């Protein structure tokens, strides 16, 4: 991976990450599609994820939790909107209550992942869109930018395995 760039656009209420991986899009797609690979990088390095459900198809749902260093669990959910393997994955992402249902008191985001071949590398762009600037500020205050950067930094080792 040559780069991890992140930008915040308050006018568009988005947080964008751009990374370049030394692998073709088909291989990078696998780290999103395969729940066993996904849980090896989704979440900051000290908060590994466990996916108990992962349906990569329109209308499909995913359930997971991240486990912190002290055993604290942070549950989340995804609802797949669109899939165009291996180039585009679009889903809603949010926090969950302890019973795994969406926590409507917390911000959710619309995520669009695009994978573009560039010679032997893949440029992956992750755009997280929020309903309001307050929602964007809340997740930034919770460390979303740093957490996602840490998560993405784990992908090259997974791709090389």
TrEMBL record:
InterPro entries: ASHA1/2-like_C, START-like_dom_sf
Domain Activator of Hsp90 ATPase homologue 1/2-like C-terminal, first and last residues per copy: 23-159
Taxonomy, superkingdom: Bacteria
Gene3D superfamilies named in the record: 3.30.530.20
Similarity comment text for this entry: Belongs to the AHA1 family.
Protein name: Uncharacterized protein YndB with AHSA1/START domain
Organism whose genome encodes this protein: Frondihabitans australicus
Classification of source organism: Bacteria, Bacillati, Actinomycetota, Actinomycetes, Micrococcales
